[in-house]
Design brief:
The chain has helices at about 10-20, 50-60, 70-75, 80-85, 95-100, 105-110, 125-135, 160-170, 240-260, 290-295, 305-315, 390-400, 420; strands at about 1-5, 25-30, 40-45, 65-70, 90, 120-125, 140-145, 155, 180-185, 190-200, 205, 210, 215, 220-225, 230, 265-275, 280-285, 325-335, 360, 365-370, 370-375, 380-385. By secondary structure, the protein is an alpha+beta fold. The chain has 3 domains: about 1-95, Rossmann fold; about 120-185, Dna Ligase, domain 1 (2-Layer Sandwich), CATH 3.30.1490.20; about 190-423, ATP-grasp fold, B domain (D-amino Acid Aminotransferase, Chain A, domain 1, 2-Layer Sandwich), CATH 3.30.470. The strands form 6 sheets. Strands 3-2-1-4-5 form a 5-stranded parallel β-sheet, with helices on both faces. The longest helix has 21 residues, at about 240-260. It is globular. The structure holds adenosine monophosphate and glycine. Adenosine monophosphate binds near residues 185, 186 and 271.
C-alpha cells in the first residue's frame, strides 16, 4: 500500500513512524514532509494547502491512502477531493470539519443535541459583545470563531481584559476573518483531558486518554502554546469518565453529524474539562492532536492502515484496536521566544544518540550544511515509553537532556498531574 501523509510537524512524524510498522506498506510520502522525518516518509515539498498539487501527486504515484494531519487542508476540502478519486482518507470532509472550523457551529451543535459544554453567546457585532461583557461573571472566555492556530482563546480575568480581547479580534482583526465573529463563554474549572476517537460515522472507538500541557512554563504558567507535552494514558480519564464522555459527548456528536447530513469519518478529538465526575466539552478538533499523537500512537498495537481502511469501508465495528500496556510521555523542546516569536537557525546537538524505547519526533527542524537546525516554535518532541508512568517520565527527560541547542526550552513537569490520581 502506498501512503501519503499531509503535514510536516511532530504529529505527522509520529503518524509516519506508526505507519512504517505496517507490513502492508510499500511506500510512504509526506506533503510537504520534513528533513527530520525523511528517513521514514519521503519529502515531496508540496504545500498542505496545494489541493491540486496533492491530487496530481496522488495520481502520479498511485497513492492508496492519505492521512491528513493539520486542520487547514480539512477545511480546504482536501478529503472531499481525494474521496472523489477513490483514495482512502483519514480526515473528515469539509462540512464535517466545520466542527473545528467554526466554534459557533460547534457550540450550536452541542446546544441542539444536548452535549454538555460551557454556556455561551455568539456575536457578529462588537458593540453587542462589549455590552454582554458587562453582564457576565469573571473570569470569562473569549474565543475567535474561526481557526487561529490554537491562539484564538483568551481567558479574561476581568471586563477590561475581555473587552480588549474582543476588540483585538473584531476591530484589529489580529486573527483576520477568524475573529469577525466571537464566542463568549463561561469559564470552566477542572482538569483537561483529550479524548480522541476513530469513527467511521457510525461506530466510535476511543483511543487512550491523554493530556496536553498548553502553557509554556511549568505549573501551567505563561502564555498558551500549541502544546508543550503530553502523556497517555492519562488517569484523569478513568474508565467511568471515558464511559461518560463516550455516551454523552463522542457518540452523540457522531450521531448528530449524521443527522445533520454531515457524516463525520476520521479522528474526532474531544477537548474535555473534567471536574469531579462532571465532563464538559471545551472544543472539538477534526484531527489528531499535536502533541497528544506523539504520546498516544506509540502505544497503538494494531496496524493503523487496517483501522483507516475500516473507517473508509464503514467496518470499524469489526476492527480490533489494541493498545500496548504502559505509558508514553512526550516532552516538547521549543525555541527561545516561542510562542510569540521563536528564534530559528540554531544547530541542534545530541540527535544521533540512541536510548531504548525513546523516539525523537521532529516538529520544527531542517537540515543546513548537514546539521539539523531549529526551524520553528516547537522544535522536537521527545517520547519515551515504559511500564510505569514515573519511568516513562524519567526516560523522556533523560533523552531530552542529551539534546541541546541555544536557549532551548522545555517544561520539567510533563505528566506530573497524573500522580494526583495514581496515588
Ligand atoms: P480551545 O482551543 O477552545 O481548546 O481552548 C484552548 C484552551 O483554553 C483550552 O485547552 C483550555 O485550557 C482553555 N479554555 C477554553 N475554553 C475554556 C473554558 N470555557 N473554560 C476554561 N478554560 C477554557
Ligand atoms: N494539542 C491540542 C491540539 O492539537 O489542538
Amino acid at each position: 500500500m502506498k501512503v501519503l501523509i499531509i503535514g510536516s510537524g511532530g504529529r505527522e512524524h509520529a503518524i509516519a513512524a506508526k505507519i512504517k510498522e505496517s507490513k502492508q506498506l510499500t511506500a510512504v510520502y509526506a506533503a510537504p514532509g520534513s528533513d527530520g522525518m525523511s528517513d521514514i516518509a519521503e519529502k515531496t515539498g508540496i504545500a498542505v494547502t496545494d489541493n491540486e498539487g496533492i491530487l496530481a501527486f496522488v495520481r502520479e504515484k498511485g497513492i492508496d491512502m492519505v492521512f491528513i494531519g493539520p486542520e487547514v487542508p480539512l477545511l480546504n476540502g482536501l478529503a472531499d477531493l481525494l474521496l472523489k478519486e477513490n483514495v482512502m482518507v483519514l480526515g473528515p470532509q469539509k462540512d464535517a470539519a466545520e466542527l473545528e472550523g467554526s466554534k459557533a457551529f460547534c457550540k450550536h451543535m452541542m446546544k441542539k443535541y444536548d452535549i454538555p459544554t460551557a454556556a455561551y453567546e455568539v456575536f457578529d457585532d462588537m458593540k453587542a459583545a462589549l455590552a454582554y461583557l458587562q453582564t457576565v461573571s469573571y473570569p470569562t472566555v473569549v474565543k475567535a470563531d474561526g481557526l487561529a492556530a490554537g491562539k484564538g482563546v483568551i481567558i479574561a480575568a476581568d471586563e477590561g481584559e475581555a473587552a480588549a480581547a474582543v476588540k483585538s479580534m473584531m476591530e484589529d482583526k489580529v486573527f483576520g476573518d477568524s475573529g469577525s465573529r466571537v464566542v463568549i463563554e463561561e469559564f470552566l474549572k477542572g482538569e483537561e483531558l483529550s479524548l480522541l476517537a476513530f469513527t467511521d460515522g457510525e461506530t466510535v472507538v476511543p483511543m487512550l486518554p491523554s493530556q496536553d500541557h498548553k502553557r509554556i512554563d511549568d505549573d501551567d504558567m505563561g502564555p498558551n502554546t500549541g502544546g508543550m507535552g503530553a502523556y497517555a494514558p492519562a488517569p484523569v480519564g478513568s474508565p467511568e469518565i471515558i464511559e461518560k464522555a463516550m455516551e454523552q459527548v463522542l457518540k452523540p456528536m457522531v450521531r448528530a453529524m449524521k443527522e445533520e447530513g454531515r457524516p463525520y469519518r476520521g479522528v474526532l478529538y474531544a477537548g474535555l474539562m473534567v471536574d469531579g465526575d462532571d465532563v464538559k466539552v471545551l472544543e472539538f478538533n477534526a484531527r489528531f492532536g499535536d502533541p497528544e499523537t506523539q504520546a498516544v500512537l506509540p502505544l497503538l498495537d494494531s496496524d493503523i492502515l487496517d483501522i483507516v481502511r475500516a473507517i473508509n469501508e464503514g467496518t470499524l465495528s469489526e476492527q480490533e484496536i489494541r493498545w500496548k500496556d504502559g505509558y508514553a510521555v512526550c516532552v516538547v523542546i521549543s525555541a527561545k521566544g516561542y510562542p510569540a516569536s521563536p528564534v530559528k537557525g540554531d544547530v541542534i546537538s545530541g540527535l544521533d544518540q540512541e536510548l531504548e524505547d525513546t523516539f525523537v519526533f521532529h516538529a520544527g527542524t531542517k537540515l543546513a550544511d548537514g546539521s539539523f537546525v531549529s526551524n520553528g516554535g516547537r522544535v522536537l518532541g521527545v517520547t519515551a515509553i515504559a511500564p510505569e508512568l514515573k519511568a516513562a517520565i524519567d526516560k523522556a527527560y533523560a533523552r531530552v537532556e542529551t539534546i541541546d541547542f541555544k536557549e532551548c526550552h522545555y517544561r520539567h513537569d510533563i505528566g506530573r498531574k497524573a500522580f494526583r490520581h495514581l496515588k
